[in-house]
Amino acid sequence: MTKEVSGTAETKKLDYYDGIEYLNDAFSALYHSEGRVVQGENGVAFEYFIKDHLGNTRVTFFEMTERFPTTGGMNVRWTFKRRNRKADGLQGTIQKDTMTEEVLQEHHYYPFGLEWTGDWRSYPDPQDQANAYRYNGKELHSEVLKQLDDVDVTLGLYSYGARFYDPSVGRFIGVDPLAEKMPAWSTYSYVFDNPIKFIDPDGAIPYPITIRSFAPFKTFGGGFHGDNRGYSKSTSASARVHQKINFDTDKTSLSTNVWSSPSWHKWRPGFKRTASPSVEIGNFAISNSGDSKTFNFDTHYAGANPLTPGAPPIDVFSDFSITSNTESGTLDISGKLTGDNFPSTEAFISDPSGQSIFLGIGFYEGSPFTSLWGDNKDNPITSFSFSITTDSDGNFTGIRVGETNYSIADWNKLFEQADPDKNANK
Fold it and tell me: How much is the pLDDT for 203?
């Protein structure tokens, strides 16, 4: 794929080839999972990215060795001093040490991707080699197209593969290629208008899998606010930890994000804090057999009470095997959840039309004082194995367990009517 930018004093051509970029037919950068390798005047430089849980690039830095030109040697491209703001507000300088890190770029975003303006670190000249992969890790097309009254006019769009996204309005500028699968939503909407809960890896629609740890009590653990609810597949339900796995049978990669609902104590209801849970994906693999494609993967999330420093986290491990058969129109799902059986646990999968089907639930055991120490990876929460039938658009039509068929409503009722206060082992 090639991009050409004209209309300014200089026409630039950027060619893309499997993670490698060529600027005006010369090597410019090679991108990998940890960052990129960029071409410098006297060699290449290795830059690294720090991303948040939504895949947004927040910091670009590189490890710099101060070296001087010698025969057979290579200069690192940038050797400059780091600014440091002193306590009195005056600017000072700190001489960089040998083999240290230098922050090259820093980015802060509004929820829908528009960048904050501020005195952040900006890339050293030449600016056209700055890292353009920012919000959601997508490429920002910010080249200057023209100048009007000394104001630079830029495109300001992110490339999501299937279409382009405008962060200033929070909308795609092209129609969703899978619009017929989601008739209840605008064909230009971005992540169901909720960028805190969802990401859109390519502008198309995934089959999200949701796993949540929630406290069914009004208060617990000595007066901390609970979620005060039963098992639910509502996307607006509160939970101590939420996980969204962006699963899609048409993709060859997998992403996930986690977040928490606010926490507070009954004695200080106005003092609310939100946890920052962590998440990992492992052992992702795809295999094909005839009309079937099987996806295997596992995940682990951990989130602790933000109001009690040092509190042990809630750990939940998931292990999935999902087989999609296009000929029969089925999704065969098997797997298990393990980890902490406190508080309660629920998991469900959703289709492009917004229907959700429960995968399983876990009843709480013990209390936060006795059940959260260690990750308890071998402790079973729930297991599942069944088939989902789908229509020609990929939307769910029913569930089959062995020789028994269920409607979606009847299946979900089995879980929604369960009492989260009832220990499954009693």
Answer: 62
Q: Which helix (H) or strand (E) holds 409?
A: helix 408-416
pLDDT tens-digit map of 79-111? 333 333 333 333 444 333 444 567 888 889 999
C-alpha distances out from residue 405 to 37, 136, 388, 416, Å: 54, 40, 10, 18
| Paired strand residues for 130 | none
Please report the sign of the dihedral spanned by the C-alpha atoms of residue 421, residue 422, residue 424, residue 426.
positive
- Provide the token pair at 273: 């804090």
Last residue of a domain, one of 89, 111, 133: 133
Asked if the model's pLDDT at residue 64 lies above 50, the reply is yes
What separation in angstroms does the CA of 303 have from each of 130, 234, 364? 34, 21, 16
Contacts of 202 (CB under 8 A, 6+ apart): 160, 161, 162, 251
Q: Is the dihedral of CA 14, 16, 22, 25 positive or negative?
A: negative
Residues 128 and 212 in one domain: no
377 neighbors 313 (Cβ within 8 angstroms): no
84, part of any domain: yes
Could you give the 3-state DSSP secondary structure of residue 129?
helix
Least confident of 75-79, 272-276, 281-285: 75-79
Cβ neighbours for 403, distance < 8 A, ≥ 6 positions apart? none
In three-state form (DSSP H/G/I as H, E/B as E, the rest C), the secondary structure along 259-294 is: ECCCEEECCEEEEEECCCCEEEEEEEEEEEECCEEE
| 143: Cα separation from own chain's centroid | 27
Cβ 258 vs Cβ 301: under 8 Å: yes
Q: Are 333 and 322 in contact (CB under 8 A)?
A: yes
Those residues whose C-beta lies under 8 Å from the C-beta of residue 248, and which sit 6 or more positions away, are: 204, 205, 206, 207
User: Can you give the three-state secondary structure of 369-404, one letter per residue?
Assistant: CCCCCCCCCCCEEEEEEEEEEECCCCCEEEEEECCE
Rounded distance between C-alpha atoms, residue 303 and residue 308, angstroms? 12
**Residue 129: domain span:** 2-133
- Domain assignment present for 31: yes
Same domain, 254 and 366: yes
Query: What is the helix (H) or strand (E) element at residue 26, kind and residue range?
Result: strand 26-32
DSSP letter assigned to residue 62: E
